[in-house]
Structure formats: C-alpha cells, structure tokens
C-alpha cells in the first residue's frame, strides 16, 4: 500500500474520471493520455497506478461498482430470484445511457483476458443462471441476457443503437420472454 503525506489527498478519483473521459472521447487509453487529462505528470499518475494494468483494473472496478449500484437499486427485494436479477440487468441495459467508457475491458487487447475475467467475476451473479434451474428457464434467462448485452453493446459502441420506440418494444419482448408465460 502506498503511503501519502498527510497533506496530500489522493488523486485516484480524479485519475479514474480522467481515464473515463479519455475513453468517452475515443482516444487511446495510455498512461500519458490519462495523466494529461487528469492534470498530472506521468510520474504523478504512476504514484497512484504503477502500470497500465493497475490503471485499467481500477477503472474497470470503478465502472463495475457503478453498474452494481444501479442494479441493486432495480431489485425488488434483498434476496432476489434469478429472474429478478435478470430483470434488473435487462432494465439497466436498456434504460441506462451507455458509452465508450463502458467498453473499458476491451481498451487494451494485451489485457483483454484479465479484464474479461474481472468483468465475469463481478457480473456472473447477475447474468449466469444457476445450474439447477430447468433447461427451459436457463434458456430463457440466457436469451434475455444476450438481448440485454446486445443492446448494451450497441449503445456503448454507438453501433446501430435502437431507436426509443424499438428499445421499448425489445424491452417488452424480453420481459415477456423472461416471464415465460407468453403474455
């Protein structure tokens, strides 16, 4: 753990916000670019994050913290069923604005495996159906997940995002699928 002098507040939050700003602008997420965006020297950035992997891990953790805070707010109760968790994920994916910063785990191909593993570790609870569910229920939950992630990715990458009308229709269709009642 890095020890800071008592009179020097941590600039970690500033650096994380600067990294997200760099991603949102479509710039390459480099240590130099983040240092400039944060108003720091590269050594000042390295004081908080010793290398790019540490920075990317912290940025992804920060993004995932925000996802999970939003998801928890969408739950109907403290001990949700798999269907309730998936409904929260679906609602979050289709009603929350997403941008290029949401794709941080893809920002450096050399770190893709590590970043994807971190994403999976944090999001598995939300999106992976329990193994003991009947096959039809697992298929329904997986289909809804893939619909949600397709919309999320289209928004985050700005690649053919849905119109508001189409988004509402897809959300309703996915909720019907999630209910499994055909209504």
What is the secondary structure topology, with strand pairs?
Blueprint: H1 12-24, H2 31-38, H3 42-48, H4 52-73, H5 82-95, H6 112-127, H7 135-157, H8 164-179
Helix pairs in contact: 1-2, 1-4, 2-3, 4-5, 4-6, 5-7, 5-8, 7-8
Q: Which terms would index this structure?
A:
183 residues, Arc Repressor Mutant, subunit A, Tetracycline Repressor, domain 2, 8 helices, 65% helix, elongated
What this model shows, in words?
The protein has 183 residues and is mainly alpha-helical. The protein folds into two domains: 1-50, Orthogonal Bundle (Arc Repressor Mutant, subunit A), CATH 1.10.10; 64-179, Orthogonal Bundle (Tetracycline Repressor, domain 2), CATH 1.10.357.10. It contains eight helices and no strands. It has helices at residues 12-24, 31-38, 42-48, 52-73, 82-95, 112-127, 135-157, 164-179. The longest helix is centred in the C-terminal third of the chain and has 23 residues, at 135-157. The mean pLDDT is 92.
H/E topology pattern: HHHHHHHH
By CATH reckoning, the class of the largest domain would read: Mainly Alpha
**In terms of structural class, how would the helical and strand content be classed?**
mainly alpha
Helix content: 55-70%
Query: What does the largest sheet look like?
Result: none
N-C termini distance: 55 Å
For the CA atoms, what is the radius of gyration?
Answer: 19 Å
What name does the CATH topology of the largest domain carry?
Tetracycline Repressor, domain 2
| Poorly predicted sequence stretches spanning 5 or more consecutive residues | none
CATH architecture of the largest domain: Orthogonal Bundle
- From the spread of the alpha carbons, the general shape counts as elongated
How many strand segments?
Answer: 0
Overall number of domains: 2
The average pLDDT value, as a whole number, equals 92
CATH superfamily of the largest domain: Tetracycline Repressor, domain 2
What is the tally of helical segments? 8
Please state roughly what percent of the residues sit in beta strands, choosing from under 5%, 5-15%, 15-25%, 25-35%, 35-45% or over 45%.
under 5%
